[in-house]
Specification:
This protein has 27 helices and 34 strands. It is an alpha+beta fold and about 900 residues long. The longest helix is centred in the middle third of the chain and has 54 residues, at about 495-550.
């Protein structure tokens, strides 16, 4: 019995039942040409029946998990994928079309495909139900009909069609050749004009016989050509019937024959027949052996003439063969029967054979004529079918499904539940003969569902039984005429699939968030790069003005401009960090030590109203990252936590050693393996799901206007992503928030970072080649250098730079990284061909990322980050020149 549950599901109240309907079940499968499958929204097969497996030339196991679209003809792949997306996205609920499918052996089959989108209770697309009917025979018949029309047109024989009234309806080129009339002259005229006048009555008699349904073969007649001469013909005529069986016309094949041609034709027919035509004496000695026999049995005519036919008969069939020949020798023809022969290679050949007596002039039997056709493939197919029936029985017993069928009156006609499903719900068994109204008396709405199926609908019901989720799919059953004569229900345990879809949905949401943040990072990095060029100009020109003005009040105003530009520079730096485009200096770090070293700073940052708790695992693996960036992660998370606890609370920072499993990754972008984990937890107000979804986006903030930039968590995301890690937020409103940072473990021993700084220095008249496409940045850079003792030559393009380098003795190339046409790195490489010892300093609003995919400083590469001030530029240039001087 089905029991109503919340959410529209049905569950089963298990009761005992008995009985096996294997035979009837097998009959249903063997007689039904319909293939069925259930597919996920991405097109992968979740379940398929044996009929579909047979149609597609695969086993049920091979179909499971495969992509139905990939089995179609390659010409259809694009359209099939477009149709699948329309269904998966809910833009279409049902499709009906015809498709070619490619079997593994290379053969093509045609299917009439009906795809139904099954939706969940809330209307969201859930999965696809596919029904494929084999229409290969019909398609081949259509193609054969087209070929037949071509054969008729090209036939040397005349092929003539006429209505029952004798009016010519078709007239091929062969008829034109024989009679001399064109198709235009004959179509629509009375064909009796071709009869000699004295045969008009006989012709009418033949026409009446044909209209009555008789076939007249190789009737020898004389007919009148257009020029009035007579032609001797062999005519075979047959009645033409429409789809209802009514005779609507007459088709005739006409051949021009002489007496000699008749004999030659008969001999040619026998010789060229693909069937094996053999003549023997009454006792079995071969007297005639055609090419069909040579092909079928492998023996040539010379090898078989004079030999006994029994050489081809298997020993166990010789008595049967002798009895048959005795009956034929007595004058009785043998109707078609099945037997076997042994070919030249010793292989058994199954044949369908007929045998007839050969009569002498006096009517006596002088031999036996037999015609045999190879049916080895048919016999093998029948044997395979019987084996398939046994396999179907085994499959149904072992498959985790249940099958239920009702007839058109609502009576249960068969019920079969596989062993696996019986173990889940032993009470699913039913008795044949029960009516659906009795079975579901307490649930009339379910009876109404089944009646809708009998009316032609396909319905899916999700049921829960003993804690397992079952899909029950009901479809109408149709007879050969297409009339609905019942329904079938297929039950399947989909618990694992439902759980997997739920897990896949979670991973997909995480992946979409990661992709969105990556896109925002690229956008933010691009904006920061352009803004850095502007800030470089503002900062340095503000410094020029401040140095030149003696009015203290004006100087303070300029200093405020300088401070504002510096704040803007810090913002752009955070944007670059978010986009993973800021310069980094990675090193192997002891994460426990970094957290411990931050204790004093974090305590001052949090204030007295927040208690700080640090917990180290003692086994946290080392990581490879930029120390300053990891410290910034901790500060940003601590500040966010402090702001979420206005009335005080506890901030806990924990480190741990974790192993990410390949089968259950924390996040799709996080590689499996050993990781170091930092958990930052507060007891604050918490976050809603909507806030969490946008928390890492730049400029997103929940703080009042003017109290936050919205770059704190965005910066954290950028730093962690650049280090190959992942950051996630877990929070509930009013219950606090935990931010989890996972960073891949590094090989090596953690050592304190050591960084060299070079003091600024005045130039000694050295010539600096400045290559920068931004006019304002190029001007301010050149001005700084000239103010401090350097000679400067300026270039806005790569070509200008090459020309200046050829005419000036340059001590250093100072170039922007991103340039039109040719990048700064390419310029430097080409310039060093002529000047191999030329020092190079790169400038960029981005970072080392444009020079190295790992965004790390490479040996011999010096990069100054825009916006730079006067002191930083001078120090960098001086260090590069000194390094070259020391060699």
């Amino acid at each position: 019995m089905l029991t109503e549950r919340s959410g529209g599901r049905l569950s089963v109240d298990t009761t005992s039942a008995s009985g096996s309907q294997a035979k009837r079940l097998q009959t249903m499968f063997m007689n039904s040409p319909v293939g069925m499958a259930f597919a996920a929204l991405d097109g992968s097969v979740l379940a398929a029946n044996a009929a579909l497996a047979e149609l597609l030339g695969r086993t049920v196991d091979e179909l499971s998990g495969s992509m139905l679209a990939e089995m179609t003809h390659p010409d259809s792949h694009t359209e099939v994928e477009a149709n699948r997306r329309a269904l998966a996205e809910g833009r279409s609920d049902r499709l009906r079309l015809q498709r070619r499918y490619l079997r593994p052996d290379g053969t093509l089959v045609w299917g009439d495909v009906s795809v139904q989108l099954v939706r969940r209770a809330g209307g969201e697309p859930d999965y696809l139900q596919v029904v494929i009917v084999d229409i290969t025979a019909r398609k081949l018949a259509e193609e054969a009909q087209e070929r037949l029309a071509a054969i008729v047109q090209s036939s040397f024989d005349g092929v003539v069609g006429a209505g029952v009234d004798g009016v010519v309806t078709s007239w091929n080129p062969g008829a034109e050749r024989i009679f001399g009339y064109t198709a235009e002259e004959m179509i629509g005229t009375d064909g009796r004009q071709l009869l000699p006048p004295e045969e008009r009555d006989t012709g009418s008699t033949l026409a009446r016989r044909l209209v009555a349904g008789e076939r007249i073969e190789q009737h020898h007649v004389e007919r009148v050509r257009k020029d009035g001469t007579l032609v001797n013909l062999s005519v075979t005529s047959s009645p033409v019937r429409d789809s209802t069986g009514m005779i609507t016309g007459i088709a005739s094949v006409v051949r021009d024959l002489s007496e000699e041609e008749r004999s030659a034709l008969q001999a040619a027919i026998v010789a060229s027949s693909s069937d094996a035509i053999v003549a023997t004496t009454p006792d079995g000695v071969v007297t005639s052996w055609n090419r069909g026999a040579e092909t079928l049995y492998g023996h040539s005519e010379a090898e078989m003439l004079g030999r006994s036919i029994y050489a081809l008969v298997p020993a166990e069939l010789r008595a049967e063969e002798a009895q048959m020949r005795a009956e034929v020798a007595g004058g009785a023809a043998q109707s078609q029967h099945r037997t076997a022969r042994i070919d030249k290679q010793g292989r058994t050949v199954h044949v369908a054979a007929t045998a007839s007596p050969i009569l002498g002039a006096g009517g006596e039997v002088i031999g036996v004529s037999s015609i045999a056709r190879d049916i080895t493939g048919t016999v093998a197919a029948e044997q395979a079918r019987r084996a398939a029936e046994a396999r179907i029985e085994a499959i149904l017993e072992n498959a985790p499904i249940g099958l239920t069928a009702f007839d058109a009156n609502g009576l249960l006609t068969f019920h079969r539940v596989g062993r696996a499903l019986r173990d889940v719900a032993p009470g699913l068994r039913r008795e044949v003969g029960e009516s659906m109204t009795e079975m579901f008396a307490e649930y009339p709405h379910h009876v109404e569902r089944l009646r809708r199926v009998l009316a032609g609908e396909e319905i899916t019901v999700e049921s829960e039984i003993n804690g397992r989720v079952l899909d029950v799919r009901y479809s109408p059953l149709r007879d050969e005429s297409g009339r609905i004569d019942g329904l079938i229900g297929v039950s399947m345990d989909v618990t694992e699939r439902v759980e997997a879809e739920r897990e896949r949905g979670l991973l997909e949401r995480r992946l979409r968030l990661s992709e969105r943040l990556q896109s925002l990072g690229q956008l933010a990095g691009g904006v920061a790069h352009d803004f850095n060029n502007l800030l470089a100009v503002i900062l340095n020109y503000a410094q020029f003005v401040a140095d030149a003005i003696e009015d203290e009040a004006v100087r303070r105003d300029v200093e405020e401009i300088h401070k504002a530009a510096e704040r803007a520079a810090r913002l752009t730096k955070q944007l670059l960090i978010f986009g993973s485009q800021d310069s980094i200096e990675p090193e192997v770090l002891d994460l426990d030590a970094v957290v411990a070293d931050m204790h004093a700073l974090l305590t001052r940052t949090l204030g007295e109203h927040v208690r700080l708790v640090l917990r180290s695992s003692g086994s946290t693996p080392p990581i490879r990252a930029d120390r300053g960036r990891i410290e910034q992660v901790l500060v940003n998370l601590a500040v966010n936590a402090r702001d979420a606890m206005p009335d005080g609370g506890t901030l806990t920072i924990e480190t741990a050693r974790v192993m990410v499993d390949a089968d259950t990754p924390v996040h799709p972008d996080l590689r499996p393996g050993l990781h170091a984990r930092v958990l930052v937890s507060d007891t604050g107000t918490g976050m809603s799901d909507e806030v969490i979804a946008h928390a890492f986006e730049p400029f997103f903030t929940t703080k009042p206007k003017g109290l936050g930039t919205g770059l704190g968590l965005a910066t954290v995301y950028g730093i962690v992503s650049a280090a190959g890690g992942h950051v996630g937020i877990y929070s509930e409103g009013g219950l606090g928030t935990t931010v989890r940072v996972d960073l891949p473990a590094a090989e090596g021993v953690a050592v304190p970072a050591q960084r060299l700084r070079v003091a600024s220095s005045r130039g000694q008249g050295e010539t600096i080649l400045v290559l920068e496409d931004d006019d304002a940045v190029r001007a301010v850079t050149s001005r700084i250098l000239r103010r401090h003792g350097y000679a400067v030559v300026e270039a806005a393009t790569a070509e200008e730079a090459f020309e200046l380098a050829s005419t000036h003795a340059c001590a250093l190339l100072l170039t922007d990284v991103l340039m039109p046409v040719m990048s700064g790195r390419e310029v430097a490489e080409r310039m060093r061909i002529q000047h191999p010892n030329l020092p190079v300093v790169f400038m960029s609003g981005y970072s080392q990322g444009v020079l190295s995919p790992q965004q790390e400083l490479e040996p011999g590469v010096t990069l100054i980050q825009k916006p730079f001030d006067e002191q930083s530029l001078l120090a960098c240039v001086a260090a590069a020149i000194r390094a070259d001087a020391h060699g």
